[in-house]
Write a structure and sequence with these properties.
The chain is α/β, with parallel strands linked by helices. It contains 8 helices and 17 strands.
């Protein structure tokens, strides 16, 4: 928790400086809204925001001859911040494409496919099965009666609340005693497992693996509805509607990188190469 608090303090200072800077002429800059607690896509290295999305956007900046400026904010407002066009040109934060979000912003082509994972401590849960591709999984129904931490307004939040309420979802957790607990970022949620405030955290695959890799007491597995059915979502970068120059540049970089290029960036930020 101490690390998270320090990082948030750094983020607040950075936000103030960038906010003042953004008031100037930004024609030679690209302002990117992010939430820097979603490694390996964006995270703090000292006082710098780094990650897969940062590398992608820096390539976009090179293509357009513009400096890229990242600012850390809460995840929830990113879509509306970009939609307003008042300050940010785009949002890059491992953002999943949804119909609701598409009504507010334009999305790039997808660059990464993810699934929801559950993080837990000790024997709170156990593996329920193995899919045909060898993926070990925990069933959504196994979260019955659990206090489930999520990052506010992420797809993890959407899935968990949907399964608890049954609103637009299967409702596998409806009337099960499960409770959704929202946090500003996934790391704070994971810290809450250690302090006993919650039982589990539901978050995307790579951030789950990254955080569990730094804590030997935690485990994480894919969340499945059955052996044949998992969640699946696609990440993209969002821009203010009508900003075709920036959108085309982002798509151009993503096409040039391809799957192999993105996988290399992921491996780099997971410390695998």
């Amino acid at each position: 928790m101490k690390k998270a608090i320090i990082s948030l303090a750094v983020a607040a200072v950075s936000a103030v400086s960038v906010t003042a800077f953004a008031a100037c002429d930004n024609s030679d800059k690209i302002y990117v809204d992010t939430n820097a607690f979603f490694a390996p896509f964006e995270y703090y290295d000292g006082d710098r925001i780094v990650g897969v999305d940062v590398d992608i956007m820096n390539l976009v900046g090179e293509k357009l001859g513009k400096k890229v400026v990242f600012e850390n904010t809460e995840f929830g407002p990113i879509i509306d911040n970009v939609s307003s066009g008042k300050k940010y040109d785009c949002g890059a934060a491992g953002i999943t494409i949804t119909e609701e979000r598409q009504s507010k912003v334009d999305f790039s082509i997808p660059y990464y496919t993810s699934v929801q994972y559950v993080i837990y401590k000790g024997d709170t849960l156990s593996v329920d099965g193995t899919a045909a591709d060898g993926t070990e999984y925990v069933l959504w129904s196994s979260l019955a009666g659990k206090k489930i931490g999520v990052q506010t307004e992420t797809t993890g939040d959407i899935y968990v609340n949907g399964e608890i309420t049954g609103d637009g979802f299967d409702g596998v957790l409806k009337d099960s005693g499960a409770k959704c607990v929202q946090y500003d970022n996934a790391q704070i949620a994971v810290d809450a497992i250690g302090s006993g405030q919650i039982d589990t955290v539901v978050v995307d695959m790579l951030p789950a693996q990254y955080m569990v890799g730094k804590n030997d007491s935690l485990h994480c597995y894919a969340l499945y509805y059955s052996a044949e059915k998992a969640t699946e979502e696609q990440y993209a970068i969002c821009v203010t509607k009508g900003n075709t120059e920036l959108l085309n540049a982002i798509n151009g970089v993503l096409e040039e990188l391809g799957k192999d290029g993105i996988d290399k960036l992921v491996a780099k930020h997971l410390g695998l190469n």
